[in-house]
Amino acid sequence: MSLTDVYASKSITISDRFPNENVNSEEVFIGNINKFRYITYLYFDLSSLEKLCKISSSKLVLFKSRTEEYCYDNYMRDKEYGIYVLKEYFSSLTNYNNMPQYDCTHEIKFIPNTNKIYTEIDISKIVKLWQEGILSNKGLMLTGNTWSSKPLIYGSSKNKDITLKPFLRVNYSTDDIFPSQVELECKYEIFPSVNEES
């Protein structure tokens, strides 16, 4: 079993506060701020791993970029957030009015740990569906599940501080793809050349 970290190659935040624009900065926002909804999209390029390895588990790791925002433990304790699979691509032109469609049947809920500087969520079931070809990897959508969800602020793929960039921690193996070598017994005979026979 091997382990690798795959950093997000794209990230963006949209909001109904500015429906024709987006947040394309060093931070991403998830949840609600002053009754406005904030949704974040992330993309991880897993093409090399999906073809050459068998992925056994995957955890999404997000680093808080403003630790002072997370001091309200009692407020955050029962606030759920959700991760969904995108059915369409997103880009730097994505906004609230043209947001991509998503698949709600494979939702993963999570509650952030206020005692840590990061949030870790197991999304193995989504990544396995990507690898098996059941779902297409067009990215993830992260959002608050209730209108009372306190905003979460994490580092984005564009963050200049590498320690704040989101990544997938992937456990994988190549045993089933590249089986171990097997010794084979071979027999051979040497025949005289045509010239020698003549």
From TrEMBL:
GO cellular component: extracellular region
Taxonomy, superkingdom: Bacteria
UniProt name for this protein: Uncharacterized protein
The organism of origin for this protein: Clostridium collagenovorans DSM 3089
